Automatic annotation (TrEMBL):
<dbReference type="InterPro" id="IPR034768">
    <property type="entry name" value="4FE4S_WBL"/>
</dbReference>
<feature type="binding site">
    <location>
        <position position="48"/>
    </location>
    <ligand>
        <name>[4Fe-4S] cluster</name>
    </ligand>
</feature>
<keyword id="KW-1015">Disulfide bond</keyword>
<feature type="domain" description="4Fe-4S Wbl-type">
    <location>
        <begin position="16"/>
        <end position="78"/>
    </location>
</feature>
<comment type="similarity">
    <text>Belongs to the WhiB family.</text>
</comment>
<feature type="binding site">
    <location>
        <position position="54"/>
    </location>
    <ligand>
        <name>[4Fe-4S] cluster</name>
    </ligand>
</feature>
<keyword id="KW-0004">4Fe-4S</keyword>
<keyword id="KW-0408">Iron</keyword>
<keyword id="KW-0963">Cytoplasm</keyword>
<feature type="binding site">
    <location>
        <position position="45"/>
    </location>
    <ligand>
        <name>[4Fe-4S] cluster</name>
    </ligand>
</feature>
<dbReference type="Pfam" id="PF02467">
    <property type="entry name" value="Whib"/>
</dbReference>
<keyword id="KW-0238">DNA-binding</keyword>
<dbReference type="GO" id="GO:0005737">
    <property type="term" value="C:cytoplasm"/>
</dbReference>
<comment type="function">
    <text>Acts as a transcriptional regulator. Probably redox-responsive. The apo- but not holo-form probably binds DNA.</text>
</comment>
<dbReference type="GO" id="GO:0045454">
    <property type="term" value="P:cell redox homeostasis"/>
</dbReference>
<dbReference type="GO" id="GO:0047134">
    <property type="term" value="F:protein-disulfide reductase [NAD(P)H] activity"/>
</dbReference>
<keyword id="KW-0479">Metal-binding</keyword>
């Protein structure tokens, strides 16, 4: 992927999640009642060709809710806190 494409948000149109119910990407929780939706969303992300771009966007935007780029909100909080310089 070239840098121009990479820096734009064109990746959104390529997201695998577009073919799925958006609600599974915004479960009420990642455990308990929301666990099944979370696992389903992570499974969809696992086969997404723009996962990396999506995760980068979510980290830069500070997206606090939902599954983005194959990560849960808790995982992104950890990444921002511990791994931000490497992303
Ligand atoms: S990584 Fe997941 S949330 Fe991001 S575009 Fe792909 S399917 Fe959608």
């Amino acid at each position: 992927m070239n840098r121009l494409y990479h820096d734009s948000e064109d990746w959104v149109a390529q997201g695998r999640c577009r073919a799925y119910d958006p609600e599974i990407f915004f479960p009420v929780s990642t455990t308990g009642i929301g666990r099944a939706d979370t696992e389903r969303a992570l499974e969809v992300c696992g086969g997404c060709t723009v996962r990396r771009e999506c995760l980068r966007w979510a980290l830069r935007a500070g997206e606090a809710d939902g599954v983005w780029g194959g990560t849960t909100p808790e995982e992104r909080r950890y990444m921002r806190r511990e791994l931000a310089p490497a992303v």
